[in-house]
Amino acid sequence: MRRSLFILLSTTILATAQPMPLPGTASAKPAAKATATKPATTAKTTFDQDVRTLLALTEVDQSAMAMVEQMGMLMKMGNQKIPDETIIAEMKKVSTAGFITAIVPIYKKHFTQAEVKEMIKFYTSPIGKKMAQKLPVITQEAMAGTQGWAEMEAKKMKVALEKKGYAFPTAPAGAPKK
After folding, report:
1. In a domain, 165, yes or no
2. Does residue 106 lie within any of the structural domains?
3. Which of 61, 38, 59 has the alpha carbon at shortest distance from 50?
4. Domains: count for the chain
5. What is the pLDDT of residues 114-153, one digit of tens each?
6. Does a structural domain hold residue 139?
7. Which of 32, 64, 77, 151 is the most buried (most CB within 10 A)?
8. Domain of 115?
9. Taking 50 as the threshold, does the pLDDT of residue 3 lie above it?
């Protein structure tokens, strides 16, 4: 149960990509103000350019790096013998360019170019800028605030499934118990 709960919570943390930095990583210091791509002033921008502008305004690259930091934390938890410096060195090798390139077609699949242009207008407005700034903090606080609820609901679900005859693997012998 604890292992599956750990996997569930780890996946959720990675999906929301909120930083819990290792010492010496970028997020361990106050975040630098992101420089977003300015919205194009001509109507001749390509759909890809508009999506990339939106991703810059919403600081998706920072979310990607937070995801990398979470992966580093999980690796450190998986092997405590790895020095922080080694994990940090490996994390610094990661480029967000591939991440951005991979999600551009996803945005294009779900939004029209006109919708993306409207989102750019929103995220360049004062409230849009505030939304982009505050959403990661709100998400992080929501994750922390709902962790107890998630654990309680997972336990109830496990009990209900066990009553229906479904078994869950137990931790291997010698595995630490929480």
Report:
1. no
2. yes
3. 38
4. 1
5. 999 999 999 999 999 999 989 888 988 998 889 899 899 9
6. yes
7. 64
8. 2-19+46-157
9. no
